Amino acid sequence: MPWHGPAQQMAEFIRALHAIWDCWYDGKPLNFRGECYRHTLMTPDFTPLNTQYGRPRVVMAAVGPLMINAAAREADGILIHTFCTPKYLEEQILPRIRATLAECGRRREDFEVSFPPFVVTGRTEEEFEAAKQRVKYRIAFYGSTPAYRPVLECHGWQDLQPKLNQLSKNNGWDRMPDLISDEMLETFAVVGEPRQVAQQIKARCGHLVDRLTLESGLPEDALREQLRIMRGQ
């Protein structure tokens, strides 16, 4: 189908969804005619009957400023990319979200900000070192992409981006993690034992976002303890 640009098309996609849900949940005629999508027919066979639970919430992933604006205008929440730091979140992303919400007459309290931080942890030294190398690789992988350069610039690390990018183009994937210092690792990731990780996540991000994702590779009892700490119980 024709390509209209990611931010414009995603915003209209959400509006098209709501037009369909207006038909399903409120009985309104379906007559959505946008620049990217057109939905004008809803047959009884495609109309759900179990509408007692209400329409779904739309939570949209976004990285760049145009997509962040689209999420704040049209969605019920935003999924922040893992390649993000508390500083970048506080100085760049959240002000843009608040400004766009205000322009649209929406309240920040009605918009959910979700963030899955990098986590380096483990029950043994071997698990911890494996997690450390895995996260360094992910930071290097994302850092090699020009679209993520602004996060590095926020910390004065912009010169690293072209080096990572060059390595990625010359099959230097195994050497890229070596360029990620421990300082960078601890800026992007929460690092420590499972209990310490939960305390750090809450301290670093709890006042900035509404929803956090935990490292799911830990056993159930460790995850339960982390949840207890983060919920202040």
Overview of this protein structure:
This protein is α/β, with parallel strands linked by helices. It is built from nine helices and eight strands. It has a four-stranded parallel β-sheet, with helices on one face. The chain has a two-stranded antiparallel sheet with strand order 1-2. It is globular and about 60 Å long. The longest helix has 21 residues, at 6-26. α3 (86-103) links the parallel β4 (77-80) and β5. Among the domains are: 1-56, no CATH class; 118-211 and 218-230, no CATH class. 49% of the residues lie in helices and 10% in strands.
Short descriptors:
four-stranded parallel sheet; two-stranded antiparallel ribbon; 8 strands; 10% strand
Briefly, what is this?
The protein has 233 residues and is an alpha/beta fold.
Helix fraction bin = 40-55%
Q: Secondary-structure element order, as H and E?
A: HEEEHEHEEHHHHEHEH
Count up the helices.
Answer: 9
How are strands sequenced across the largest beta sheet? 3-4-5-8
Kindly estimate the percentage of residues that lie in beta strands according to DSSP.
5-15%
Explain the layout of strands and helices.
Layout (H helix, E strand, L loop, with lengths): L5 H21 L5 E2 L4 E2 L19 E4 L2 H10 L2 E4 L5 H18 L8 E4 L2 E3 L4 H19 L5 H6 L5 H10 L12 H7 E3 L2 H12 L5 E2 L7 H11 L3
Parallel strand pairs: 3-4, 4-5, 5-8, 6-7
Antiparallel strand pairs: 1-2
Helix pairs in contact: 1-2, 2-3, 8-9
